[in-house]
């Protein structure tokens, strides 16, 4: 069996171990990042929606940074939103702060009924910079 090339951001290792998943896996020049939510250090949801979205992006950026990537390396985005008809506009007020400039990555938005107490989750696939492909 091949060993997965797992990437962990600093300071949250125990949270991922407790929930039994890897924050990201590097494979063939790509980084597959698990869904990131606006969780505080203890794993609890940030109750304010705007702050929760910002924290989800900060958690995502920490995973990307641990793999020597940035959001500019992201090519594919999937977001999950509880009650998107009600929350989409508020969420999209925060997104441009983290999204960068065009050309933008592609995106799929999915409306869901439950996210373990969260209202927003983002998962991405990023291109690993050329220097890291040899790992």
What does this structure look like?
By secondary structure, the protein is α+β, with helices and mostly antiparallel strands. It has a single domain (5-128), classed as 60s Ribosomal Protein L30, Chain: A, CATH 3.30.1330.40. 30% of the residues lie in helices and 29% in strands. The chain has three helices and six strands. It has helices spanning 13-19, 49-66, 84-99, and strands at 5-7, 24-27, 30-37, 74-82, 106-112, 120-127. A six-stranded mixed beta sheet has the order 1-2-3-6-4-5, covered by helices on one side. Helix 2 (49-66) packs across helix 3. The chain is globular. The model has no long low-confidence stretch (mean pLDDT 91).
Mean of residue pLDDT values:
91
Q: Can you tell me the overall shape?
A: globular
**Approximately what portion of the residues adopt beta-strand conformation?**
25-35%
Query: Radius of gyration in whole Å, from Cα?
Result: 15 Å
Strand order in space, largest sheet: 1-2-3-6-4-5
Indicate the low-confidence ranges by residue numbers: none
**Largest sheet properties:** 6 strands, mixed
Q: Architecture in CATH?
A: 2-Layer Sandwich
CATH class: Alpha Beta
Q: List the secondary-structure elements in sequence, H or E.
A: EHEEHEHEE
Number of helices: 3
By DSSP, the count of extended strands is 6
Helical fraction equals 25-40%
> By CATH's scheme, which homologous superfamily applies?
RutC-like
CATH level-3 fold name: 60s Ribosomal Protein L30, Chain: A
Task: Please state the structural category.
Answer: alpha+beta
The CA-CA distance between the termini, in Å, is 18 Å
- How many domain units? 1
């Amino acid at each position: 069996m091949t060993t997965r090339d797992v990437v962990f951001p600093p300071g949250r290792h125990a949270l991922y171990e407790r929930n039994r998943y890897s924050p990201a896996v590097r494979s063939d020049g790509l980084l597959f990042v698990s869904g990131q939510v606006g969780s505080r250090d203890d794993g609890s949801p940030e109750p304010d929606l705007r702050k929760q979205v910002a924290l989800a992006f900060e958690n995502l950026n920490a995973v990307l940074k641990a793999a020597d990537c940035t959001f500019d390396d992201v090519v594919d985005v999937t977001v999950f939103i509880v009650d998107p008809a009600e929350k989409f506009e508020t969420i999209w007020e925060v997104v441009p702060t983290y999204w960068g400039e065009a050309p933008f990555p592609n995106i799929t938005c999915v409306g869901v009924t439950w996210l373990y107490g969260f209202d927003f989750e983002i998962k991405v696939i990023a291109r690993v910079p050329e220097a890291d492909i040899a790992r």
